[in-house]
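Hey L., structure's done. Input below.
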Amino acid sequence: MSSCINEIQTARQHIAIKVNQSTISVYWNIGALLSQKVQVASYGNSIILKLSEDLKMKFPDMGLSPRNLWNMKKFYDRFCNADTKLQRSVAVLPWSHNLLIMSKATSDDEALFYASKTVEMAWTRDILLNYIKAGAYLQETTTVKSNNFKETLPENVASYANELLKSSYNLGFLGVTASLKERDLEKRLVEKIKHFILELGKGFSFIGNQYRLEYNEKEYFVDMLFYNRDLKSLVAIELKIGEFQPEYIGKMNFYLSLLDKFERKKDENQPIGIILCADKNHLDVEIALQDINKPIGVAEYKLLLPKNQLEELIIKEMQ
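Output:
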């Protein structure tokens, strides 16, 4: 029974993707035609209005209002000279996502960032809007990442791991309005694990929290353990309520040694550690990572949503 349901759901998803791609292709082509015919807005209003009336008679369900026809022209004009990678990204996005990116992104690089992230992470429009409002592009391009991946991982793995690790993680979907203990934070993340995985990035699978490791007749517990299919690595995450402390590195290095010795499979790359702190100083992390031979990254997290920044949207989205 479940296999039949999965088959139908998969087929529907493929159909929806194909329909969306066809729709965007039509909108692009209409936009190209309008771009050639309509050069001046005041002159084009009558043309657009007449065209809308004619098209809606034949295709009443295609969203061919005058406003949308103008948007199609803007869509083509905005991306017709863009990089091929950007064109490919917007070509597979839903129309509402493209309209949002056009209205908010001020450069091709910013548009590509949000378009490619939306494709990679399957963001809804509301989640995309949240990331735009939070300035995710600026954070990604201006904040220094703190890790030793280049020194401890093979070049191809290090490059992907560095791309995957964010400098800051937005945990606003937890709806936190007061201070938490580390175990309470972990509990909330586990309860919202689907959304935490989306925040982590592409290819993550959750293995467990308080993951037990045993060595020399002693027990140790990793806060959260994941596996990343693209990295082919176990990813251990430690949660810290306060600011970064150098001793966190030694503890994570020990956990990674145990995971490497007892949990890692022959065809997997070495485990990676991520320490999530409320605050970090890049120079402190850099010094602490010196002479450490295990791949470790340190990132900040944001718990409290600023007022007037889509709190209602996020709470609704994550319920």
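The first strand starts at residue 146 and ends at 147. Residues 304-319 have pLDDT under 50 and may be disordered.

-- N.
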